[in-house]
């Protein structure tokens, strides 16, 4: 399968990128690992591909105060290898699930966010952590909270004349633990259901805040504050004690239709199990004497 | 990451707002002005250690460029939308899908394909292990599996310390649909265990000449780019480059001629007369710098190759009657050949001459599928005929007519006789081994 003909340009500046995107019939090309299959299947035929890889300053990967800032052309594998990723523990947990190594070599973090596949891992990470996304457009730059950015399947707050230029992931503080898991038919495929969790405890180990984002279960990542859910599960916060509550949550937020790979009911069940498991893991990792469990 | 040249630039930016500025070690790529839809664009990159330039439309992906323009058909294409992993190659050291990268995105990139991983007689440990563990059956996924496993063991988070139980997940980026994964995973686990100090790099990335398929065969959908005319293919090489890597075949021919050495040298020293003695060769143009443009035909049964190429005399020692010629040529069918030929004439018995021809041959494309024994046999016959023609020219002053190319009958008979001799020698060895075994009992 070959892409239809398109014009191609690789501008040197962000202004030139925006000028090329003006009119709305261009498409931003960063790593292309989501876009090129779309072009190959001729599901999309943009007039112009605007390659942003020559724009200076978009490849920055830096710690900036209390966030790690990932520029638009930073490859997923570059972040995976960077010591900075450890400051945002959900990233090293989630990145190995993004496609395959061969795709992460080229695929970008921001590209995955901008593509906004409902089953993609990085949008869920961004929502769970409350990341901030920076968008440049004809009217200047704006900062959008991740939860507002994803508005539907492959639909975001960035319009056809905009370009996502960076994402800021909050650095984890003390007393914070995370969990991440997904189920797919084959490693690297889009998840049938997945969860990202973050739990904060105080100095005594009491749960302060718990957040959970589900993905692959709706038309966008769905985030809930589950502090009360976790607190209500008894002092051990053991997985079986959480299961009834996460099943209730699953019934509420899993609204994807069934397909050949699994019915809605099956996905609810997957989600309930994964949510209980990863909440428990995040809680354990958050405790002051946290020891990594072998599972 | 795999060792890369200094073209991978690390640019450390100084942003005062950042406390800790880590720059992504990603290759910088220069800007490119707008290329209209369907318009061809010249793209320079490095493939298996060799600098190449292709001229293709922006919509052409890297795998098609490798296969159709550079003749590197080791990179296979399956799904062409990033799922199957057949087209996995190394781009700037890391494995990537060649079908999900437009060639125009690869300007200045370093590409390594399965052809660069190892040579048939100098295989990479991964290639040896795949063979030993029956890690392939039909071979279709093998290039992808090899390049993906190379990437895993060379650049993966744990390198060759990867745990065998992690391999099914780590190798899930390439699909096999025939022999099953067991042999493949066993091969990768074996290589990992054998190389605790790290995986050896690609073994066949010395600089050589990649000659594309003539005519610039484009994979454009019929009618779509046809209106813009044919995409220009690789032009005839402008210079002869020293070949690198192991040759496909080496030939050493020693012929005893009746003509005296000075007369033989007079023929060798005159490139026009020398070319007339080469079966199938035709000198087209004499260029500066002792370079010659020519054609050569080879006809062997159904095999008919017509090479256009360039030869250059790089050493000429009249006192010692020595000559060294580099030649390279390509045919429109995607075959390419390159030769490093040394000719030396010495006074022989009875006032005659001993002519030595030593040649290292480099074959790529379809001609390489000949099998090296046959290529070597054919070349040996060619030099024997050449020596006879030189002798006749030296004695009579006129070259015999060898322009029609290597005589199919004589070469086929000669090669067949050689093959029979080899088979007979193998038979003798088998019989002797069987006798030895029986005696040992």
Automatic annotation (TrEMBL), chain A:
Source organism, top-level taxon: Bacteria
Domain FAD-binding PCMH-type: 1-174
GO MF annotations in UniProt: FAD binding; oxidoreductase activity
Protein name (Swiss-Prot/TrEMBL): Molybdopterin dehydrogenase
Record keywords, A-Z: FAD, Flavoprotein, Oxidoreductase
InterPro entries, A to Z: CO_DH_flav_C, CO_DH_flav_C_dom_sf, Diverse_Substr_Oxidored, FAD-bd_PCMH, FAD-bd_PCMH-like_sf, FAD-bd_PCMH_sub1, FAD-bd_PCMH_sub2, Mopterin_DH_FAD-bd
TrEMBL record, chain B:
Record's keyword terms, sorted: 2Fe-2S, Iron, Iron-sulfur, Metal-binding, Oxidoreductase
GO molecular function: 2 iron, 2 sulfur cluster binding; metal ion binding; oxidoreductase activity
Keyword Transferase: no
Gene3D superfamilies noted in UniProt: 3.10.20.30, 3.30.530.20, [2Fe-2S]-binding domain
Pathway assigned to this chain's UniProt record: Alkaloid degradation; nicotine degradation
Residue ranges constituting the 2Fe-2S ferredoxin-type domain according to the UniProt record: 41-117
Keyword Iron tagged: yes
Top-level taxon in the UniProt lineage: Bacteria
Full protein name: 2Fe-2S iron-sulfur cluster binding domain-containing protein
């Amino acid at each position: 399968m070959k892409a239809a003909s398109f014009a191609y340009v690789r501008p040197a500046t962000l202004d030139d990128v925006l000028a090329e995107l003006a009119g709305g019939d261009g498409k931003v090309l960063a790593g292309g690992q989501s876009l090129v299959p779309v072009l190959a299947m001729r599901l999309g035929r943009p007039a112009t591909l605007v390659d942003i890889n020559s724009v200076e300053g978009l490849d920055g990967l830096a710690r900036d105060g209390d966030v790690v800032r990932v520029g638009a052309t930073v490859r997923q594998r570059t972040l995976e290898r960077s010591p900075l990723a450890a400051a945002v523990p959900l990233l090293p947990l989630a990145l190995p699930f993004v496609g395959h190594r061969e795709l992460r070599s080229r695929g970008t973090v921001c590209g995955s966010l901008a593509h906004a596949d409902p089953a993609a891992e990085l949008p869920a990470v961004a929502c769970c952590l409350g990341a901030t996304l920076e968008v440049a457009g004809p009217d200047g730059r704006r900062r959008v909270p991740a939860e507002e950015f994803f508005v539907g399947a492959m639909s975001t707050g960035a319009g056809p004349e905009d370009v996502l230029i960076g994402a800021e992931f909050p650095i984890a503080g003390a007393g914070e633990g995370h969990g991440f898991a997904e189920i797919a038919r084959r490693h690297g495929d889009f998840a049938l259901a997945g969860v990202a969790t973050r739990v904060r405890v105080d100095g005594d180990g009491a749960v302060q805040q718990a957040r959970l984002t589900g993905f692959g279960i709706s038309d966008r990542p769905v985030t809930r504050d589950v502090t009360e859910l976790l607190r209500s599960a008894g002092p051990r916060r053991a997985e079986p004690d959480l299961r009834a509550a996460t099943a209730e949550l699953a019934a509420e937020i899993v609204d994807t239709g069934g397909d050949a790979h699994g019915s809605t009911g099956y996905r609810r069940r997957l989600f309930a199990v994964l949510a209980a498991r990863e909440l428990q893991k995040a809680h354990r990792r958050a405790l002051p004497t946290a020891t990594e469990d072998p599972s | 990451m795999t060792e890369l040249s200094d073209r991978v630039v690390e640019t450390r930016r100084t942003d005062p707002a950042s406390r800790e500025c880590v720059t992504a070690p990603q290759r910088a790529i220069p800007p490119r002005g707008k290329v209209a839809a369907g318009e061809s664009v010249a793209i320079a990159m490095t493939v298996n250690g060799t600098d190449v330039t292709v001229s293709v439309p922006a919509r052409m992906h890297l795998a098609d460029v490798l296969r159709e323009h550079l003749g590197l058909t080791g990179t296979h294409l399956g799904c062409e939308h990033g799922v199957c992993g057949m087209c996995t190659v190394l781009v700037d050291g890391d494995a990537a899908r060649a079908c999900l990268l437009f060639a125009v995105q690869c300007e200045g990139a370093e590409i390594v394909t399965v052809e660069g991983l190892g040579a048939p007689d100098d295989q990479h440990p991964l290639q040896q292990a795949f063979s030993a563990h029956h890690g392939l059956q039909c071979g279709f996924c093998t290039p992808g599996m090899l390049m993906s496993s190379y990437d895993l063991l060379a650049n993966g988070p744990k390198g060759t310390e990867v745990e065998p139980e992690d391999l099914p997940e780590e190798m899930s980026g390439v699909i096999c649909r025939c022999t099953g994964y067991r042999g493949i995973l066993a091969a990768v686990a074996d290589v990992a265990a054998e190389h605790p100090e790290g995986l050896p790099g690609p073994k066949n990335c010395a600089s050589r000449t990649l000659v594309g398929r003539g005519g610039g065969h484009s994979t454009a959908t019929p009618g779509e780019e046809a209106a813009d005319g044919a995409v220009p293919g690789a032009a005839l090489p402008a210079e002869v480059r020293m070949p690198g890597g192991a040759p496909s075949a080496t030939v050493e021919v020693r012929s005893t001629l009746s003509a005296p050495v000075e007369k033989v040298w007079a023929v060798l020293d005159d490139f026009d007369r020398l070319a007339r003695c080469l079966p199938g060769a035709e000198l087209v143009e004499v260029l500066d710098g002792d370079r010659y443009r020519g054609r050569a035909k080879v006809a062997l049964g159904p095999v008919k190759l017509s090479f256009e190429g360039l030869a250059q005399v790089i050493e000429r020692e009249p006192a010692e009657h020595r000559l060294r010629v580099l030649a390279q040529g390509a045919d429109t069918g995607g075959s390419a050949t390159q030769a490093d030929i040394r000719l030396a004439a010495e006074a022989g018995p009875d006032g005659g001459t001993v002519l030595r021809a030593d040649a290292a041959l480099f074959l790529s494309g379809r001609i390489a599928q000949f099998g090296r024994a046959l290529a070597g046999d054919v070349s040996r016959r060619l030099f024997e005929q050449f020596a006879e023609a030189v002798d006749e020219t030296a004695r009579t002053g006129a070259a015999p007519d060898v322009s029609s190319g290597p005589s199919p009958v004589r070469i086929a008979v000669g090669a067949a006789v050689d093959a029979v001799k080899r088979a007979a020698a193998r038979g003798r060895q088998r019989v002797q081994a069987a006798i030895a075994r029986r005696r040992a009992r």
